[in-house]
Design goal:
Blueprint lengths: L1 H12 L3 H23 L2 H4 L1 H25 L1 H10 L6 H14 L2 H19 L7 H14 L2 H27 L2 H21 L6 H13 L3 H14 L3 H13 L3 H21 L7 H18 L5 H15 L5 H14 L8 H16 L4 H17 L6 H15 L1 H26 L1 H6 L28 H17 L13 E7 L4 E7 H8 L6 E3 H8 L3 H12 L6 E4 L10 E4 L9 E3 L2 H4 L3 H30 L1 E3 H11 L6 H13 L3 E3 L6 E4 L2
Parallel strand pairs: 2-6
Antiparallel strand pairs: 1-2, 3-5, 4-5, 7-9, 8-9
Helix pairs in contact: 1-5, 2-4, 2-6, 4-6, 4-7, 4-8, 7-9, 8-9, 9-11, 10-11, 10-13, 12-13, 12-14, 14-15, 14-16, 15-18, 17-18, 17-19, 18-20, 19-21, 19-28, 20-21, 28-29, 28-30
Length: 679
């Protein structure tokens, strides 16, 4: 080679460089024509063989060009460099090869179609595809500058056709999870093709086609079939995979809608399921906790997803206007009541935090407040609260959430309990009082401020002489300390501890005041009819039947009813159960006071609606006083922005009419849809 190199250098030094370059170009062109001409017959008969032979010829040709460049290196570095119109020997050789291919449209078509077919076969899993030939020829096209013109367009078109067909077929035959795994694999394979032998500029259009055909086109079906089961089974890995793929194709909005629809459906089912209403709050807490974990672990805690979650919960929980608020209050009651199956303080704190999240979504917080206040009153007055600290901690949470106005009355209830404790200390330490009381009895009174506590209907009863005397002594003592006040005894809330002697043993019975009134009758008789008891106690029939039912048909039966039916009738007879026995010394029979009656529930709801009417009236007057004149539409809009509870337009219209009748407002003479404020 060195001899040839020196000969070429001598020719250049003797001014023969142009002649040498021209002859070299002719020889190269003749070689290319010869090589490609020999392959032409294979094009139509054996396209695969044509590609293999072409790849071999290309490799040989490239090696030959490299050898020529080495031999004519002096020519390349002197003469060719000085001629701007001439190509270097290697580039000249490539140009001649490209020219020859472009002169034959059949060769172009066979080459492009053959390479595209090889890629397609490889995608179908054909292991016989010669990847070496494929890579070498694609790189040849890149080197010759024919990649974009003769391969890329056909390649992308075939890719689209292939993945459109595959997407439809796989979507029909695979489960959603398997389909997503398949999509991931395909995207990974196409990325590998780009890194191994395709042009870098092909990466973006190629992946876009795969994403469009396999993912974006079928995303509605994927979410419809797969999202619900993934969420229900808490498949975090699969949800993360789904999120990543949706994010990749810019379709997180569809995933967000799917999440919202899932929450609306699940939470809506819990809220509207009357048969399992007792489980509603716990189900909602669990659902919220699970979805929060999904958002954190799978959805990158995206703010938009949290917004969708909040909107979905608010929609679902308020499908029924008042019932969820009532059930949340009762759920908290069950957790704070003594004897509830709860863990320690940490578990209770965690539970209350979970309830508070659900509470935030409730629009009718006044309904919650009414039921919570009613249950809190019973826990405090009947000694059924598991922990005063837990009670105060709960109220502090509500205060932080809703402000001091929301918890003002609840805090007042605790204040009354504390004041009552001080009053009773003074009462017991008063020598004048103690001289009037019988030593075998003890009395404890809670003095309640009317505005703080729920409203209780008065229940009349003929109390035993001993209790009436106690009440009079306390009343005299209290009014001597607080003149000008009025005491009203709430018989329905009172409870007593009675010592009761049976044949087998003596017991202590924790009973309501009404139960006490009934049982005290049996100091003078062993057997009494319903009418005897009704006449002696003066208790109204409905309440008396409840009381007798609790004493004769409950778990602790200290009275025997005749006949033995499940309902109490006016013709029944009740006998003291002398042979009663039980393992415990102290027995609690006053659960009747904790149980909410349907009438009590209805009264609480009605009081809320009554309060709402006052709030609506006040809001209307406040708005009209500042605006003086306003159309019906604008007034309704203002009211909705100010009122914090849900209300129907028809109910607002009734309140407006009521204020017109009471001469707070009047209609405009020229336009009946415009209202004026009357000072």
């Amino acid at each position: 080679l060195e001899v040839v190199y020196r000969a070429a250098e001598d020719l250049c030094l003797h001014k023969k460089a142009e002649l040498v370059y021209g002859n070299l170009q002719k020889e190269c062109e003749a070689q290319v024509v010869k090589v490609l001409g020999a392959l032409t017959p294979l094009q139509s008969v054996e396209p695969a063989s044509f590609l293999k032979e072409l790849e071999k010829a290309w490799q040989v040709y490239c090696n030959q060009l490299l050898t020529l460049r080495s031999i004519f290196l002096y020519l390349d570095r002197t003469f060719v460099l000085q001629q701007s119109t001439l190509k270097s020997i290697f580039d000249m050789g490539l140009h001649l090869f490209r020219q020859q291919i472009e002169k034959s449209p059949a060769t172009e078509r066979t080459l492009s179609a053959g390479l595209v077919e090889m890629v397609t076969q490889e995608r179908r899993g054909d292991t016989q595809v010669d990847r070496k030939v494929l890579k070498s020829l694609v790189k040849m096209l890149l080197l010759l500058g024919l990649y974009s013109k003769h391969f890329e367009r056909d390649f992308l078109q075939e890719t689209q056709r292939f993945y459109q067909t595959e997407g439809q077929e796989k979507m029909a035959e695979l489960e959603v999870l398997d389909y997503l795994v398949h999509c991931e694999r395909r995207l990974r394979e196409e990325e590998e093709k780009c890194s191994e032998y395709l042009d870098a500029f092909t990466f973006q259009p190629l992946t876009k086609i795969v994403e469009e055909c396999l993912l974006k086109k079928h995303l509605h079906t994927i979410l419809e079939k797969g999202f619900g089961p993934f969420m229900s089974d808490l498949k975090f890995q699969d949800l993360k995979r789904l999120y990543t793929l949706c994010d990749r194709v810019g379709s997180l909005d569809l995933l967000r809608v799917a999440l919202s629809n899932y929450v609306k459906q699940k939470a809506g089912d819990f809220v509207t399921d009357d048969k399992n209403s007792g489980q509603m709050v716990q189900n909602l807490i669990d659902l919220k906790a699970n979805i929060d974990k999904v958002l954190a672990d799978c959805f990158d805690n995206r703010e938009s997803f949290h917004g969708a979650l909040k909107e979905a919960f608010e929609y679902s929980i308020n499908l029924r206007q008042n019932r969820p608020a009532e059930l949340v209050a009762k759920y908290i009651d069950s957790k704070l009541r003594s004897g509830s199956k709860g863990g320690g303080d940490e578990e209770l704190e965690s539970t209350l935090d979970g309830v508070l999240v659900i509470f935030r979504y409730i629009s009718g917080k006044d309904v919650f407040e009414a039921f919570y206040k009613k249950d809190l009153a019973k826990r405090l007055l009947l000694g059924k609260s598991s922990s005063v600290d837990a009670e105060k901690n709960t109220i502090a949470k509500f205060k932080t959430e809703c402000g001091s106005q929301f918890t003002n009355k609840l805090e007042g209830m605790f204040k009354d309990i504390d004041i009552s404790r001080d009053i009773m200390t003074g009462f017991k330490n008063s020598a004048q009082v103690q001289s009037k009381l019988k030593k075998e009895m003890e009395l404890y009174v809670n003095v309640l401020t009317t505005g703080y506590w729920p409203t209780y209907p008065p229940i009349e009863a003929n109390l035993p002489q001993e209790l009436r005397e106690f009440q009079e002594v306390f009343k005299s003592y209290y009014l001597s300390k607080h003149s000008g006040r009025r005491l009203v005894w709430q018989n329905s809330l009172g409870q007593c501890v009675l010592k009761c002697k049976f044949n087998k043993a003596s017991k202590e019975l924790v009973v309501s005041l009404l139960q006490t009134v009934v049982l005290m009758l049996y100091n003078d008789a062993d057997k009494l009819t319903y009418e005897d008891i009704e006449k002696a106690t003066g208790i109204e029939p409905k309440e008396l039947k409840r009381t007798l039912q609790s004493l004769s048909l409950g778990k602790v039966r200290v009275l025997l009813k005749d006949p033995k039916t499940k309902e109490v009738n006016r013709t029944d007879t009740f006998t003291f159960h002398k042979d009663f026995k039980a393992p415990l010394y102290r027995l609690r029979i006053n659960q009747i006071q904790l149980k909410e009656t349907q009438e009590e529930n209805q009264n609480t709801t009605e009081r809320v609606f009554q309060d709402r009417q006052y709030q609506v009236d006040a809001a209307i007057v406040r708005i009209m006083k500042s605006r003086k004149m306003l159309s019906h539409t604008l007034l309704i809009s203002e009211l909705y922005s100010q009122l914090k509870f849900p209300i129907k337009p028809s109910d607002l219209k009734k309140r407006i009419e009521s204020l017109i009748d009471r001469e707070y407002l009047e209609r405009d003479e020229n336009n009946s849809n415009v209202f004026k404020y009357l000072a």
